[in-house]
Amino acid sequence: MKSDIKNKFVYNFRDGNAQQKKMLGGKGANLAEMVQLGIPVPPGFTIATKTCLAYLGEGNQFPQNCWEQILDEIKDLETQTKKQFGGTKNPLLVSVRSGAPVSMPGMMDTVLNLGLNDQTVESLATITDNPRFAYDAYRRFIQMFSNVVLGIDHHEFEKKLTQYKSTKNFTKDTDLSAEDWQQIIEQYKNLVKEQKGLNFPQDAVKQLKLSIEAVFKSWTNSRAVTYRRIYDIPEDMGTAVNVQAMVFGNLGDTSGTGVLFTRNPSTGEKSLFGEFLLNAQGEDVVAGIRTPQEISGLQALMPKVYDDILAVTKKLESHFKDMQDIEFTIENETLFILQTRSGKRSAAAGLKIAVNLVEEGFLKKTEALLKIEAKGLDQVLHPRIKTGSKKQTLTTGLPASPGAAVGQIAFTSESAEKLSKEGKSVILVRHETSPEDISGMDASVGILTACGGMTSHAAVVARGMGKPCVSGANEITVREAEQQLSIGELTLGENDFISLDGGTGEVILGQCETEPSAIDENFQTVLLWADEIASMRVRANADTPTDATKAREFGAKGIGLCRTEHMFFDEERISAMREMILSGDEASRQNVLAKLLPFQKEDFKGIFKAMDGYPVTIRLLDPPLHEFLPQKDSDIEALSATMNVDFEVLKKQVLNLHEVNPMLGHRGCRLMITFPEIARMQARAISEAACECQKEGILVLPEIMIPLVGLTKELSFLRKEIELVLTEVFMKQKTNVDIKIGTMIEIPRACLVADEIAREADFFSFGTNDLTQMTFGYSRDDVGKFLPEYIDKDFIEQDPFQSLDREGVGKLIRIGVDKGRQTNKDIKIGICGEHGGDPSSIDFCFHQDFNYVSCSPFRVPIARIASAQSYIRKWGPNR
Amino acid sequence: MKSDIKNKFVYNFRDGNAQQKKMLGGKGANLAEMVQLGIPVPPGFTIATKTCLAYLGEGNQFPQNCWEQILDEIKDLETQTKKQFGGTKNPLLVSVRSGAPVSMPGMMDTVLNLGLNDQTVESLATITDNPRFAYDAYRRFIQMFSNVVLGIDHHEFEKKLTQYKSTKNFTKDTDLSAEDWQQIIEQYKNLVKEQKGLNFPQDAVKQLKLSIEAVFKSWTNSRAVTYRRIYDIPEDMGTAVNVQAMVFGNLGDTSGTGVLFTRNPSTGEKSLFGEFLLNAQGEDVVAGIRTPQEISGLQALMPKVYDDILAVTKKLESHFKDMQDIEFTIENETLFILQTRSGKRSAAAGLKIAVNLVEEGFLKKTEALLKIEAKGLDQVLHPRIKTGSKKQTLTTGLPASPGAAVGQIAFTSESAEKLSKEGKSVILVRHETSPEDISGMDASVGILTACGGMTSHAAVVARGMGKPCVSGANEITVREAEQQLSIGELTLGENDFISLDGGTGEVILGQCETEPSAIDENFQTVLLWADEIASMRVRANADTPTDATKAREFGAKGIGLCRTEHMFFDEERISAMREMILSGDEASRQNVLAKLLPFQKEDFKGIFKAMDGYPVTIRLLDPPLHEFLPQKDSDIEALSATMNVDFEVLKKQVLNLHEVNPMLGHRGCRLMITFPEIARMQARAISEAACECQKEGILVLPEIMIPLVGLTKELSFLRKEIELVLTEVFMKQKTNVDIKIGTMIEIPRACLVADEIAREADFFSFGTNDLTQMTFGYSRDDVGKFLPEYIDKDFIEQDPFQSLDREGVGKLIRIGVDKGRQTNKDIKIGICGEHGGDPSSIDFCFHQDFNYVSCSPFRVPIARIASAQSYIRKWGPNR
What we know:
Two copies of one chain form a homodimer.
Chain A: E1 10-12, H1 21-37, E2 44-47, H2 49-57, H3 66-81, E3 84-85, E4 91-92, E5 94-99, E6 110-114, H4 120-128, H5 131-148, H6 154-168, H7 178-196, H8 204-218, H9 222-230, E7 240-245, E8 256-261, E9 273-278, H10 284-287, E10 293-294, H11 298-301, H12 303-320, E11 324-331, E12 334-342, H13 347-359, H14 365-370, H15 378-381, E13 384-385, E14 392-396, E15 398-401, E16 404-410, H16 413-421, E17 426-430, H17 438-443, E18 446-449, H18 457-465, E19 469-471, E20 476-479, E21 484-487, E22 490-493, E23 497-501, E24 506-509, E25 514-515, H19 521-533, E26 537-541, H20 545-553, E27 559-563, H21 571-582, H22 586-610, E28 615-619, H23 633-643, H24 647-657, H25 669-674, H26 676-695, E29 701-706, H27 712-733, E30 740-745, H28 748-752, H29 754-758, E31 763-766, H30 768-776, H31 787-792, H32 806-823, E32 828-831, H33 839-847, E33 852-855, H34 860-875
Parallel strand pairs in A: 3-4, 16-17, 17-18, 18-19, 26-27, 26-33, 27-28, 28-29, 29-30, 30-31, 31-32, 32-33
Antiparallel strand pairs in A: 1-2, 2-7, 5-6, 5-7, 8-9, 8-11, 9-10, 11-12, 13-25, 14-24, 15-19, 16-23, 20-21, 21-22, 23-24
């Protein structure tokens, strides 16, 4: 070695392994690992990720000594292949590909056939005895290099080619002869000259340097930035660059190229799944320009190669203990593997594969759990087309990514984004998608393409995003320019509704009825594993007996947030509520509250019964009173008539209750301190319901939660009020129920004085929605004016209302937890904001030793898995 | 000693000293100190404050061993006085008085003449040879004890006495003979029997125990709690109890009792100031029932005693190095001092006394500074009646507390509070005030009493509160029941306006014109001392050249907050501002901003000139845009006409800009990130103004402040935008000005990530108004619905918008300061919320090593003194 580790920027495939993903990128590390395993891989080397960061950080300068290391490796390649880089006798051609530590398919740039120039192309023609192939390779190189390195739009080249073909009356590329390609090469070189004022670079070393730099720079192109934002990939990873000797799938019909998955990435089924094209080069498959053949078709054409593929896939899967996504090239009936990686899969496939890998003895349950992407699991529970519903199927394409999508058609990314911002559900319809469409796909609920297979860009990305996708629906003609698609006689335009079934490939006219999915067997198995392992419980937010039952079906171990205000919104109740608000004195308020008591009590009984044996946290009335009154004059008038209250009186009351910033106003415990009779009524309803349920043999574990506490005395005052009621009810009912009294921690100040508050509380439940609002000073109702821009411009990595902001809000929570436990070491701690269903936020809670997280019933399964994953990540798979 | 310190609850006056105020209370400590000095003090002992806390804490139980210690001290008293407690031969009578570590005049209870019963009263009559005195003393004792210990309203006793007098046709108490008092005593004892069903306690020891307990309990009576709230006195101090042998000022005309100040508490003039009553007991002077004689009158009546008083006052003042407030009793021409303490004084007197004590060599400047109550200093700057203004003077009373007050009459505390809550200025008019009136006085802008002297309750409390007061205006008849007062022919009722001049004693009809006071010579002297000493600078919040000039007059060393939005509200500018808001694109916004630029620039030039040599912190545009647009349909219509914009377009724009919680919405830096052209225009105006001023020879030190930063990238983005503008301006202007760029820290999250933010900031200015709003989750606009109740009910000690909440907001600030200095150790730190003018908050800032505080110009002098005091308190008077 010429240099120590710190100054080592370049690694031969022989020197790396799969553990070094951070340094070599996923592609590089796995190429190295395959070399160790004896898999046929064309030789090459990897320029480490730190080189990219150093290059970009130092104003686009290679770090010292780096270039020398690259040239050394090129020499080594020449030795191994017995070819010369830029040499005219037997020229060495290489590919230059990006490879980040985390897979970002298609986001960054690639140059193939590098090393060709006006001389070496002649040698290649001679050596291969295939001038047509050589000139085709050269024109491909010119086009790719000019696009990636020189920034010339690839359409410009395609235009030239189309023109040429039409003059000659050619229809397919295969119609062109070697001489035709030579003509094209001249035209391409002229195009470069016109557009950039330079001759196409002939020096192979210069070509290499420029290409490596272009790959470095592609780390920060807007597509890549968007992709990282969507998938929460850190900006400071950088990409590695792999330089590898070329092998050719386009040397004729004994050559080819393909992509395969070792299992079905859509269903998880254990059978080889993939596609290939004969006489084609790399990206032809992924780009979806020619529709490829199924991989099984190779068995008849090249049985030996097919057997080799079977052997390699078996070896790779048992080695990596996971379903693999493999790229291969066949050069004159010799198999080369160009890439292997864990394959992206639909959530359902992920569950099946995990279960199967455990059954097959490859993985422990803990290891299998870690392979599941918890965040994407909601797609398994996403709606499917309702069984037995009427539907007019227009055509059937490939079932590229499962699930049902119903929406209005958009033909471009721009219009998909626009319609989505207007709150519409959009289905993006394209002839084929390309990496430029990533934000449009993100904005859509489903994707439909007319062209491209199961491994096309659209299919891969949609599965990653967990969105339904039908690809290769080739009966459809998409005319993007005219904003139209046609299927036979039928023409549809933007805004027309269609439905997709990504599980069957059906494209359906109009809006189908959908129904929620049930938890299937594999999911159930994985959830049971998770529950065996997880230390942190999962509860649900549920306000009604129906929701509570649903939550229990989804495996919730209690209710973490039962909001009582929703109970007052049905007609009979809201009029009593309004009467209470309009009462001028405590006595008449109490009278009206007495009317509400039986309703509340019945609600609570229903919930306690549904949650027999599990805790139920009931939050006392939280919203400001004006939410119960109408705001518009016309509505006030209507109410004044039905309530027989003077309009002006009512109007004045509405105005009196108006607040400039209701979020920071008279609500939560503040309201109950002004009107303690509300808290007393609710405490009575809860405790009477609890006593009566207990007498029926139900195990009730109620927890009364006081919202919006910021001062210790707010809690101690209300605690006393509630305890008085409980004592009285227990005496009357001649029984006793263990009812805990605690508080939401949702005001920043509450975190800061949590040591004092904890003395008065049996539990803390972090209300991270409000806590986020106040810590950031963002009103959720108003944040739409700037937060999307903030996220776009990377002012903030993620929407803090979706994923907990660890840096700010998280720090406050830590303060609150630490202080709370200082004075009350056994205090029960949970979270009931929407973050309770987000795996990253759940991981944060786990690391603060929360007793539970609570989320919407729908997200309970995700939270159960995320909770187990956090445990396994912390304690390892063997504990 | 029988017990160690921990178990020692009772201290003889011989064993204590003035340093032990925390343990013995102010009164007890000073009584002990006087005993050490050889001042004639009746013997006695003090029950320490911790006893009160222990008593209340243990459910009203004396701590172990305490009662034995009290009995031991009673024995000691018997030895010293040669009298027996409860003995019939020569009975020892004692007083039982409260005495907290901080003076709370009249707030807690006192029992005099304790030890009298049906037997001892006979002995007292015999020994003093004054049966009338003895029975009067007994009936006083019964009344006081029954009120304080048994809780019988003292009006009940007065009713009996009045009845008796009217049957006998007596007009004054002095008309009653010994036999009359005996009759009264029987009636009083019957009253106790009727009301409480018990015989009046005859056992002296039992009387003592019950009285001590009553004093302990009076610590938590509502008057005392209110008083502590107003004066920020902690709840956990407790009160000491002083038990002292009685001396009698009511033994005849060679006896008397009085109160005096060693200097004039209203003006500070060095001359004895006080009042006395002959043949009277203790509280008769303070209660203001009989109007007392001036102290100088005593010289003629009892020259020897007067000389003794002069000698004692001289001794006490030189010993305590402060103006003293002394209570004395003369028993048969022998002087006894019952209490000495630092006297409450008006703010103006406080300044004069401080200056004089330094001149007289009693105090160092540092010591004198500590004697000034910074919080009250605003009264010196409060308005006075405008010189030469027309006024109709109704009468002239005593000038009890200086300053001018203009308001509407209220006759009861309740109506004063009610009117004040309605936003009215109230003058409380009473025949005399009593401790029950404390909250009414607090709610009023001035106090007028018909009865009572310069040391009456009204006078003392008003001076303490810094409120104008005219007392003893005896031409006025106050008929509280009828809600009327009359002066001669004139009758005034509730809501009629009067004006008071507390400096002259004038009562004036209607609303006088007032004018601000100037800083007088004494104030100026003290301010210069303060500036010599203080390490933390004081800046002002000022938005205009006029304000800046005012601020400089008040001694501000810079501007800590110049709000730029106010600059846009005059007619010409707001229409440009509105045009900008309505512009659909950046180019047209820039055009309109160009129109605003010259205005801004002129404003800044004026401010820079006024602040030549001092830093000026300019906050960029902060409020949400809708504040610049009209909200009502009629106003929008008017604007649509003048602007020639369609009503519907305008209306839609107004609705678009509407926010549910504007406080947490699109404002501050969020706005400038959406519209960076605003920040650029302002940066241009600031830098051009700075360059031009500098060329005129003015030393400009601008600081550009970005509001509402919560994310580091908000600051770094805007910093870059601004720096680009500055560079461009400096190039054009061919000069360079050192312009700092920093941020307000006003979002909780900013404190939590202050280490990151500090890397991008030259300074932090804590915006504690918004920080308090968000940390508490209180909207200042809406908090009126519950915060007053919270303060009343002691949920929170003080209004957190007036005095910084150290427990919550303070903790966040500490986090912000510590983190900020971690990454940027030289970062300049200040505060610009309203707390910048509050001494307690200033002290907090000092302890966080702030570089400056900034407050309204008016409060700058207060802040200068508070800053010096913090320094002296930390480093001692000698540094």
